[in-house]
Task: structure prediction
Amino acid sequence: MRIRRYRWSDLDAILALHQICLAEVGLVPGDGVYYDDDFPRIQEIYLACGGDFLVGEADGRVVAMGGLKPVDSATAEVCRLRVHPAFQGRGLGSAMLSALEQRAAELGFRRLSGDTTLNQGAALVLYERHGWREVAREQVGELTVVYGEKRLAPAPAEI
Result:
């Protein structure tokens, strides 16, 4: 998989990827957790304010994605971490999360936050393997949202 920065031409592909991935774990519009209003505003919400949005390409198509949304000067939220179901189990989620963590450190963030649901068991395992720790849970309708965080080491200085 090749990981690169989001381009406007990726919009339809990432929105479709989002919808496929959430449907796969039983999340649907109106459940209190599912939303997609940020997709037409990737530039504004992620890129223009000091964050980033990455996509992963394999076999000539977008199969993974993830965003970094600044919360404050020290913290970014990992959002929209998705891997197409047909490509799961190959380490692509781990590669994307590693790329997001590295990019966050390069941007000067010292802490990452994020959330997922109990429905998304693979995501929970992925975050745990990457050293994230659970900080809270919240019931939203029928869903349990799990909040996590990770402290980042500063990015190495370029010589």
Observations:
- The longest strand covers residues 61-70.
- The mean pLDDT is 93.
